[in-house]
Design a protein that fits this description.
Blueprint: H1 2-34, H2 39-65, H3 69-90, H4 99-120
Helix pairs in contact: 1-2, 1-3, 2-3, 2-4, 3-4
Length: 122
């Protein structure tokens, strides 16, 4: 029973990461209505938002769980990327997975693993 509770922290980490993403995207959209941004800047910004959100969610989950930070980080990153993919598809985007998505997911899994380990030691 205790393990189920520990793994539920990963779900809470994904939720917190998603909320952080929404807040940052709202701020970014307000800023870009005033100041134009190129597609290159926007693309890089989306990757940075993803990584910062995974970092935050993984640290939170690992710190709450108290053990197996790397696993918590991977779980948060994987679930977060699935949520992003589903939002993209249901929002009318393409269901195809390209190189951009593979790189973004790989970076998220790497950051999730490292930040989960960091969260244990904070």
């Amino acid at each position: 029973m205790e393990n189920k509770k520990k793994y539920s922290y990963a779900g809470e980490g994904v939720f917190r990461a998603s909320i952080l993403t929404l807040i940052i995207l709202v701020i970014y959209s307000i800023v870009t209505t005033v100041l134009p941004a190129s597609m290159k800047v926007t693309s890089v910004f989306y990757i940075v938002i993803t990584l910062v959100s995974v970092l935050y969610g993984s640290i939170f989950a690992a710190k709450k769980a108290g053990e197996k930070g790397w696993l918590m980080g991977i779980m948060v990153a994987a679930a977060y990327m699935v949520v992003l993919y589903l939002v993209k598809v249901f929002g009318g985007g393409s269901a195809a997975i390209g190189m951009r998505e593979i790189v973004r997911t790989s970076l998220a899994l790497g950051i999730g693993t490292l930040s989960g380990m960091l969260g244990i030691n904070l």
